[in-house]
Amino acid sequence: TISDVNILNLNLNHNYVQDVVLVLNHPDGTQLLYIDGVCTNQNGFLNLNLNSQAATAIPCTANNNNPIGQ
Predict the structure, then answer these.
(1) What is the pLDDT of residues 17-35, one digit of tens each?
(2) Are 29 and 65 in contact (CB under 8 A)?
(3) Which residues pair with 31 in a beta bridge?
(4) pLDDT at residue 68 in the model
(5) pLDDT over 80 at 54, yes or no
(6) Disulfide-capable partner of 67 in 18, 29, 44, 50 (CB 3.0 to 4.6 Å)?
């Protein structure tokens, strides 16, 4: 049984991050939804670390022209 999944140093360029859906699919059909419609008008992720057991949400910055994690 897997109890914790981490994605390290995620880098992704996309004009509108809220369009991005990131799902981890296991061969047995189990899915883990990581990202779905976060941080309106940000333009990507830069060295972002994700943890399925994180105590806080993805940090959205006030500057909408910067990638998340920068």
Answers:
(1) 888 888 888 899 888 888 8
(2) no
(3) 25
(4) 64
(5) yes
(6) 44
At 67, is the pLDDT very low, low, confident or very high (cuts 50, 70, 90)? low
CB atoms within 10 A of CB 42: 24
Query: What does DSSP assign to residue 42?
Result: -
CA distance 67 to 16: 10
Q: Are 25 and 31 in contact (CB under 8 A)?
A: yes
CA–CA dist 46, 60 (Å, integer): 12
Whether the CB-CB separation of 49 and 58 falls below 8 Å is answered with no
